[in-house]
Amino acid sequence: MSSQTTVEIFGRRFELRATEGSERVQELARFVDRRMRELAEVSPHVDTSKLAVLTALNIADELFKEHETEPGVRAEQFRQRVEGLIRRLDDVLTPS
Question: What are phi and psi for residue 69, nearest 5 degrees?
């Protein structure tokens, strides 16, 4: 079943129909908006359509790199991130 939702990306509103829930579509739109704004900061004179294409290419590049990473390497990277977060939590929660 599809639902319709309105999202805003880089100052433009879009009416979208999706099989995902509205909250998921909003989350994805916020992600794309944030990435476009990050690129716009370093390339302020690029027009919006080119900025959208550059953003899509950057996200696709990240996705391809993630898929190309060996499962064992991904698991190790995840383990390291979790351990880092645990250390940070321990630092914050340990009484002085």
Answer: -75, 135
**pLDDT tens profile 38-67:** 999 999 999 999 999 999 999 999 988 888
- Write the CB contacts of 26 (distance below 8 Å, at least 6 apart in sequence): 5, 7
In the chain, domain spans: 3-69
Which spans in 1-96 are helix H? 22-42, 48-68, 71-93
- 28/86 Cα distance (integer angstroms): 27
- Structure confidence by residue, pLDDT tens digits, 2-35: 789 999 999 999 999 888 888 999 999 999 999 9
* Bridge-based pairing state of the strands 12-18 and 3-9: antiparallel
- What burial letters (b/e) apply to 9-22, b meaning 16+ CB within 10 Å? bbeeeeebeeeeee
Estimate the crossing angle of helix 48-68 against helix 22-42, to 10 degrees: 110
